[in-house]
Design goal:
The protein is of the alpha/beta class and about 325 residues long. It has ten helices and ten strands. It starts with 15 loop residues before the first strand and ends with a helix. The structure holds 4'-deoxy-4'-aminopyridoxal-5'-phosphate.
């Protein structure tokens, strides 16, 4: 019989699929997509959730029967919830009222407690989700605050799992790696591994308008006055998380909220790949950079999560019309 001991053993070994139409038939390079929605929690984040928990166990930060606390409503919460179920931990996720009800319901379905805080308060306000998660971690005995932004097990997971898998699937023959960047875990972990194997591989981060990542990469300066809120989910930041090492990143390409949405919808309709908003942004970034590629290039683009999380937004025609994008 061919089975795994539990659901966590199904994390990883996701497929690499050639893109045939979405970039247009005259796109010069071969482009293959690493489809991370094949993970059990439907995103790449399962990999880092497992690694962060296992490292916290080893370091004695998380003890049997403990409570995992994180500020998330999304993919990291889903990954942590799966790990917690198998390993016997409780989960409390603190999120804000900007997030859809469905996201909170999914986490509750997996046994997590979800606390919803107001969005429009300062981070220092005691009601903000930052303050609430920190306070809970102090108050609840035997609890552990994950902090995916500054927890370096995040990028290490991609160095140990995502990147070697891509290397093995391609025989190391690719020339460019294109990936959405948020906490910096995926791009830095993979970028470090790839540059150690072949320093010529170009590592390209996908950023949004309203985020400070590209500007910080190019100038080393943080100008919070240039940050503003945007609709794209999962990528871009208004802080520089500890998980970044900009030395492994060659370029950031910014994509608009509109283009990310349009290309996610094209990816679904033209390739049959139903992926998330940031996946659309990654494809849009490639399209924008078309003139920089040649026939000899081989591009790996990583698609972070599944389209089902976005049926109320980019895959909903009314929502698209409200934005004026349809
Ligand atoms: N896309 C999606 C949908 C995500 O949830 C995330 C995680 N924030 C990213 C992209 C960016 O990945 P990372 O945090 O590893 O930079």
């Amino acid at each position: 019989m061919d089975y795994t001991e539990n659901i966590l053993f199904t994390i990883g070994k996701t497929p690499l699929v050639k893109l045939n139409k979405v970039l247009g038939e005259d796109f010069p390079a071969l482009v293959v997509a690493k489809i991370e929605s094949f993970n059990p929690g439907n995103s790449v984040k399962d990999r880092m959730a497992l690694k962060m928990v296992e490292d916290a166990e080893k370091q004695g930060l998380l003890k049997p029967g403990g409570t995992i606390i994180e500020g998330t409503s999304g993919n990291t919460g889903m990954g942590l919830a799966l790990v917690a179920i198998v390993k016997g931990y409780s989960c409390i996720f603190v999120t804000n009222d900007k997030q859809s009800k469905e996201k909170c319901d999914i986490l509750r379905a997996l046994g997590a407690k979800v606390i919803v805080c107001p969005t429009h308060v300062k981070a220092t306000d005691p009601r903000s989700y930052y303050s609430v998660s920190k306070r809970l971690a102090k108050e609840i005995p035997n609890s552990w605050y994950v902090n995916q932004y500054d927890n370096l097990s995040n990028r290490q997971a991609h160095y140990e799992s995502t990147a070697p898998e891509i290397w093995q699937q391609t025989g190391g023959k690719f020339t460019h790696f294109v990936v959405g960047a948020g906490t910096g875990g995926t791009i830095t972990g993979c970028g470090k591994y790839f540059k150690e194997q072949n320093k010529d591989i170009q590592v390209i981060g996908v950023d949004t308008y309203g985020s400070i990542l590209k500007e910080y990469h190019e100038t080393g300066e943080i100008h919070l006055e240039n940050a503003y809120s945007y609709l794209t989910e999962g990528i871009g930041e208004d802080i520089i998380p500890e998980n970044y090492d900009m030395a492994y990143i060659d370029h950031f390409e910014k994509v608009t909220d509109k283009d990310g949405a349009i290309f996610a919808r094209k990816l679904a309709k033209e390739e049959g790949i139903f992926a998330g908003y940031s996946a659309g942004s990654a494809i849009a970034a490639l399209y924008q950079m078309k003139s920089k590629f040649t026939k000899e290039d081989i591009v790996v683009v990583l698609l972070h999560d599944h389209g089902s999380r976005y049926v109320g937004k980019i895959y909903n025609d009314d929502w698209m019309r409200q934005q004026g994008w349809l």
